[in-house]
Amino acid sequence: MRPLSGLFLATLTISLIGGAAVPASSSGVATVYPQVETPALYDDEAGGNANGDDPAIWVDPHDSDDSVVIGTAKQAGLFVYDLDGREVQHLPAPAAPGPDDEVGRFNNVDVAYGFGGRDLAVVSDRGRDQLRIYAISHGRLTDVTDPAAPFVFNSTQEQVNDKETAYGLATWTDSTGTYALVSRRHRTSVGLVKLLPKPGGKVGYQLVRTLDLPASFALPNGQTWAPCDEPGVQPQVEGMVVDQEKDVLYAAQEDVGIWRIRADLTGTPVLVDKTKEFGVPGTYDAATDECTPGADPGYGGKHLAADAEGLTIYYREDGKGYLLASSQGDSTFAVYRREGSNAYLGQFRVGEKNGRDGVEHSDGSTVLNVPLGDFDEGLFVAHDGENTPAEPDREITNFKFTKWDDIADKLGLDVDTDGWDPRG
């Protein structure tokens, strides 16, 4: 099919969900604590330019205690951890094809189960504008990317070097095949990409269609608002998750809020919640590469401090459950109902305890209801964008593992290990 047209954008109706009552128990922000943290990643030459971003959990079909967490680290590639947070494998990102070209930078990762009898880790490579695909067996990853895999959004290396490349990612499987939903850096585009078996056990892919979310918004005061950024840069999407039972994509447009979209990218997107900064004008200063905000007209949401980032779903057996979103600007996580109009339920943060620091400025997160090792009621994993103890002139990140039942107890949520299993 052809990509959705500009006419669609011109006639897009934005539906806003809001005003839902919030239970008294969810007022304020609860604090939970990590049980495990992974080794520090250092984003400098000495640390291999490792900058953590997004995690995914792979469930071992033979023994869930042997499941692993896969984390992206941009230029440093992928790190694989056991349930105690120990590194068990490291896979580097691809080198640049030429001296003036971009190197591989792994941004987001998700797991697709049962593709041709194999489980796959699918990764967005924002440096190369490609997907990298790894077969998973016994908790170890093997690169099975088709050598002829195309660029996702571009047609030439010169375009790739302009950095409008594959960015956020979530996998989706239905009766027609296995897909990746991939967002485009510095654009509002989201693409539906179908995974394809290739000779020799390799896996390729093909872009099916794209959808462009709005770049500007009509406000109740009659003005038009667009998030402030450098000229030519649109409000991008990164955090995404697909509700595998309902075939629904949730996409976090960083400065705007969370969208609910049909996973096949048809139909009309619905804006579930807005960032607090929605509608606030800004003036871009090229000298500082910063935006100076103007007066807040009061049209923003109440729960998400920009950027809206990592999204993940906790499934319940009754078809209900929870959508979790990283509110990166205030280092908290917002919780919404999975069903209906995605009513807001509460907020939590991951704090410091027992020598493990909390989670700050989180990009990506993931949750599973499946019992995994000591996390017998489910596991929540979040990227920590400011790991401590700090070291001068070094950017340090890692991943924190938290028990789902700790989150559920603090917010009055349910624990349901009989909910949707990723293996069916």
TrEMBL record:
Keywords: Hydrolase, Signal. Residues 1-20 form the signal peptide. Residues 22-411 form the BPP domain. InterPro entries: 6-blade_b-propeller_TolB-like, B-propeller_Phytase. One of its GO terms (molecular function) is hydrolase activity. It comes from the Bacteria. This is Hydrolase.
